[in-house]
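Archive maintenance. Older records in this collection stored only the sequence; we are now back-filling the structure field for every entry so that each record is complete. The fields below show one back-filled record exactly as it appears after the update. Entries are processed alphabetically, and Lysophospholipase-like protein is next in the queue.

ARCHIVE ENTRY
Title: Lysophospholipase-like protein
Organism field: Thioalkalivibrio sulfidiphilus
Length field: 315
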Amino acid sequence: MRLIPFILVLLLLAACAPVRVAPGEAVKTPVIEDGALITRDGARLPVSRFEAETPRAVIVALHSFRDYRGAYDQLGPWFASRGIDLVAMDQRGFGDAPHRGYWAGEQAMLDDVRDLVAVIHREQPGLTVYLLGESMGGSVALALMGDGQAPAVAGLILAAPGVREGIPAKPFWDGALRLSERLAPGLTVPINQDYDGVLAPEAVARFRDDPKVLRRIRTDTYAGLVWLAETASRRADRVRVPMLVLYGKPDRTIRQEAICHLARHHATGQVDLRIRDHWPHLLLHGPDREAVAGEILAWLDGKRNEYAVNRHCPA
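Back-filled structure field:
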């Protein structure tokens, strides 16, 4: 009889297991049709394509947490006008992708980007492909390029990527998150962050008014984001392609120690680290985002500084 309360607790915990919307069986050859990537398991992930008249490279752009492909509606035409195609995709659980608000799991998210890169190579053979990721999108890009089955991309552009080194009392926070993920996975928390005065006016309006931006976050979805960032941090030393890492000192979401750890542990040391005093966390949406885009374009054109890590991250 003494075991009954213990068994009931176990049953309750099992009933509260985190929700992961797992992908289906791989049955299709990925393709882009009717404005969406049709993935290997048949999921339909909407894409926006900004095409240059005569492209010389392609950027696959991954949005941040809560956001969707609309994050690149301003920068997409800017790059296209300068000879760079940009393709932005709604990642699973975001925007118009299936199961909005639910976490799909790391492997599904990585495979989706792998599929998109493969389709672009098939459609545009000979063009160089780069991965651009902002915050969560940076976590996805890092985890993918360090997973041992990296797709054929020429480099990573990471805007305040989600990485986790240097967090004080990290085991305590991780334990608390695992407990909340187990006890209340479906608990939703409203997010009404005010970006006024921090981001460009149109970005402020989009985050405030666009119904496709998530404004209520499930505990298990947030936990999935954190564990993805952990994976990205662990795989930093397996990434072998050149990286441009962009970060702003006012960032209160990602610690500078984590960015420095990422830069110092790159497998080949081909890292151009640029830290600015005024860039916000979502620096691709800041008031000077075109200046940021100009730095990205210059890097794509070969203007790189792989010695800046020592200046920003003294040993």
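Update note: The first helix runs from residue 3 to 15. The CA atoms of residues 94 and 100 lie 5 Å apart.
Entry marked complete.
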